[in-house]
UniProtKB/TrEMBL annotation:
The keyword Hydrolase applies. PANTHER family: 5'-3' EXONUCLEASE FAMILY PROTEIN, FLAP ENDONUCLEASE XNI. This is 5'-3' exonuclease. 5'-3' exonuclease acting preferentially on double-stranded DNA. SMART domains: 53EXOc, HhH2. It holds the Pfam family 5_3_exonuc_N. Residues 1-247 form the 5'-3' exonuclease domain. One of its GO terms (biological process) is DNA replication, Okazaki fragment processing. Signal peptide: none annotated. InterPro entries: 5-3_exonucl_a-hlix_arch_N, 5-3_exonuclease, 5-3_exonuclease_C_sf, DNA_polI_H3TH, FEN, HhH2, PIN-like_dom_sf.
Length: 275
């Protein structure tokens, strides 16, 4: 079996701003929600039988306590922010496993789900559907891969090495050195991607760098940023991978799809092949 793990927050952003290009700034109340649901149904129609969606139930997480500049909900369009919780309810009504993350982030949820699913010998492959570079650290061989929906590019371990210059296990160290503007930490001044890859391939993890490479101050900052970049995998999201099997929409989905104003949603969900 193949397990598909979707980044609900990324998909919500993608559909919100994609739709806005055609609505001239008039945002349908649940336009992004219906877009994400159609994406999930497309995944099912293409053969997915086991899938789950992680979302950021709140934008802030424990990382905001570690670094004051870490990303927050400030600046997120209210019309987008108001669709997070309706998306979670709609996914549940559609019969999809959904994990609303609070103390942790959606990326941690995806990493945790990948870890749990990896422990099942019947799982042949785990596809993590997000372009977020954080998730590259979860890639393992060609069994756990990262998929960019827009480009349909699949990153296995070799693909991660080709893209970043380091093995998947070194992605937190790599991001610590080069920074991640999307998450709000700057990395180490003077170290770009090529230098970071060269240092990591020569010395291994940041903890193993000779003292002269970074110095005490920059080493301390690098380790802090590595902590921010390291995804947590201990969330107890499910016990048995069969909990991710999609068996069709629940009875509540008819009323839910009507509220969302997605006329085709119910018809499409009922017609989609149940696992």
């Amino acid at each position: 079996m193949i397990v598909h793990l979707l980044d609900g927050t990324y998909e919500l952003f993608r559909h919100f701003y994609g739709l806005r290009r055609f609505t001239k700034g008039e945002d349908p109340p649940f336009g992004a929600v219906t877009g994400v649901l159609h994406t999930v149904l497309e995944t099912i129609e293409e053969g997915a039988t086991h899938l789950g969606v992680a979302t950021d139930h709140v934008i802030e997480s424990f990382r905001n306590d570690l670094w004051p500049g870490y990303k927050t909900g400030q600046g997120v369009d209210p019309a987008l922010l108001g669709q997070f919780h309706p998306l979670e309810r709609a996914l549940a009504a559609m019969g999809v496993a959904v994990w609303p993350m609070t103390e942790l982030e959606a990326d941690d949820g995806l990493a945790s789900a990948a870890r749990i699913a990896s422990g099942n010998e019947d799982v042949e492959k785990i596809c993590i559907w997000t372009p977020d570079k954080d998730l590259a650290q979860c890639v393992h061989g060609d069994r756990v891969v990262q998929v960019d929906r827009r480009s349909r590019r699949i990153l296995d371990a070799e693909g991660v090495r080709e893209k970043f210059g380091v093995d998947p296990v070194l992605i937190p160290d790599f991001l610590a050195l080069v920074g991640d503007p999307a998450d709000g930490y700057p990395g180490i001044q003077g170290i770009g991607p090529k230098t970071a890859a060269r240092l990591l391939n020569r010395h291994g993890i940041i903890e193993n760098f000779p003292p002269a490479v970074l110095g005490d101050d920059r080493r301390g900052m690098a380790l802090l940023f590595k902590d921010l970049a390291t995804l947590r995998t201990g969330a107890r999201l499910f016990h048995d991978v069969d909990e991710l099997r999609w068996r069709g929409p629940t009875e509540a989905f008819a009323a839910c799809s009507e509220r969302l104003g997605g006329a085709r949603l119910l018809e499409r969900a009922l017609a989609a092949p149940a696992g």
